[in-house]
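Pasting as-is:
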Amino acid sequence: MIQRPRGTADRLPDVAPAWRLVSETFQRQCELRGFAPISTPTIERTELFSRTTGDATDLAQKEMYSFQDRGGDSLTLRSEGTAPVVRAYVQNGLHNLPQPVKLYYVTSIFRYDRPQAGRYREHHQIGAEALGDPSPAVDAEVIDLLWSTYRALGIDDLRLELNSLGDPDTRPAYRQALVDYFTPLADRLDSESRERLTTNPLRILDAKNPAVADLSKGAPQSLDYLDEPALDHFEELKELLEALDISYTINHRLVRGLDYYNRTVFEFVPPDAGSQSTVGGGGRYDYLAEMIGASHVPGVGFGSGIERVLLNLERCGTTAGDSRTIGAYVAPLSDVAVAHAMRLARQLRQAGVAVECGFRATSPRSHLRRASRSQARLAILIGARELERGVVALKPLNGAAQVEVRHCDAVRRIQEILAGDP
């Protein structure tokens, strides 16, 4: 028996309502703020990700699904959502539109990672990007979009953690300060952090090893290395969040996992936060477009894993009802009635009624059991006697009396019954 690949999951019908709740709630929050949908290819040129995420990141070193196609091009399955949207913005001339261009997406992300709760090698994200405006007000709106989505879903106990990484011209000094701090402590770092000391010391702050995390508490803080414009940007963002009644906590260890971030970085975490508990996060990436060979395009955005959101829906006790509503069940009671039943079912669907239809002749009791399992409100019985008389039998499943109507009046009468008319 062929099994699904490790780190993937089948999305079965019983979880579809929760998935739909998340995506539709997010879409509604985006539309309220003027964000428009965008979709990018599942495959991109590998250099789109290798140039932007950073050579020393886990994503670039060991998590991308990359391959060479028959034409010799190196392609990669979408490993994160932001770089493809920036590429699409540049390639399709969206800079000619009024700025910022505000975009959202619901998409699949592929990463060769160790599977665990809420994390899969193919996972799914809701995400949004605002491109073309460096204002901290745009950062605030993007954070408010994600915060409002969680609140609308009933996940109202998440903590917003906030930090600023400054700009590229101040990053070297901060990087060197971290090297100077951690070098005397190298023998107390784990092997991964010792490697990061020479490749990407900021990522030591993000280490999940408790011993390393404890050492990081005394490390230099990025806020102390901001220049005046970056500091002003951060202070204004905090004021705007306070004006929006969005509480936050400054987390000096927050750096995010990709190298393209500058200035604002943020994450939403639950109260029982563990090492892999971030529900969603993002930040500003004003220099990402230049990394792929385009002109300067300021931007800010986020991604939030749907699987992680679903875990928090469950944690908060939020349930999603099945929005599928079957109005009627058409039951053929004889072989000759099957074609008539299917034709009536199609007429009802064309009139906007959701219908289940039996595919073979069987007893009324068997059909009624199936109608009950489908949660239909009305069973429509068609047998040889009904065909001879040109009628159908309508049996409400709430216990009301069965009635007969002429076949030519069936659609109208069924609509009336389902609408509640006597």
